[in-house]
Specification:
The protein is mainly β and 359 residues long. The chain is built from 1 helix and 29 strands. The protein has a 5-stranded mixed beta sheet, with no helix packed on it. It has a 4-stranded antiparallel beta sheet with strand order 2-29-28-27, with no helix packed on it. A hairpin with a 5-residue loop joins β23 and β24.
Amino acid sequence: MKKNVAALALLFSLCAAGPVLADDGHGGGKGLFIDRDVDTFAVLPQGVINPEGITANPANGDIYVSTFSAPFKLLRYNRHGRLLGELDFGQPLLGLEFRNGKVYICNVGNFVGAPSKIQRVNADLTNLEDVAIMPSVGAPAPNFAVGNPDGSTDFITFGDNASVPNALVFDSKGTLYISDSFQGAVFKIANVAGCNVATCTVNTLSHDGQLATVGFPPFGANGLAFNTDESVLYVANTGDDRVLQINPATGAVSSFSESLNGADGLVFDKSSGLLWVCTNQADEVVALNSAGKVVAKLGEFRGINKDGTPDGLLFPASPVIVGKEIFVTNLAIALTAAVGDEPEEDVKLWTVSKMRLPH
């Protein structure tokens, strides 16, 4: 009897600690961890749609969410999902990043005939200011060569596209990195906290055909994340279903992981050494080990609830880790011209989800 009680106690302690990852990426196991449980963290206010960017204040756990479609808003929630405030914008918003009491924002003004820019605002959503106007560098060089297995080569010429700043990440020195999905580029602003729209200099880290796409969804360079020692900058290419890696010193681009259906937002978990990827066309979030192998899958789409909210994940766009949980925006945007072919068409209320991380 005592042995049974001890065994039960051990079982309960493991359950309380959360799901256990079978493969830690260091050769400790070959299993694939799967957990489909998804909780709703917050339901957006009526009429506020298509949440895209997300970030968190590490001091108190507040969650910030941006919206891609009108009415364009930046929403602030407390750690328990209560809406604390909102700020209105006139342009679509994408990625967010929190740094030193400020929320940095990707503003895609080019979609509505205005300049695209990076902005920032205080944690309490006061004192909005422009940080930098994003440059127009055009498409990557024409005749981008892609080799085929039969030895032939395809040559791609990308269109001269709008400036679409999509995702943000800081390095430890305070340099801000910005992906541009339509221009196929990654930019950077050194010491961004100490400059403003009049003094910030936007430099090009990489402008490469691998960061553009002719695929679907039609977004190239997207989510950004650094590895632990910042020797690698990971970049999702959504339309090409891959995660790339950039050498931050040289800007050289190479493949890291392939066949990730709609690779979107990224977040690197330093505690586990895993890179988490929102796969927006697979409606799940997957973890990659240091070799680029999928070792865990979280979440799934289970349909539309009676109140019009997604049950689970639907077009998961951006992640942020707070403690032992990962929070994800459900963009749930219909992208095709056809009617009746996408569950996103049936969404009436949009959500932010949360899931427990394995360890």
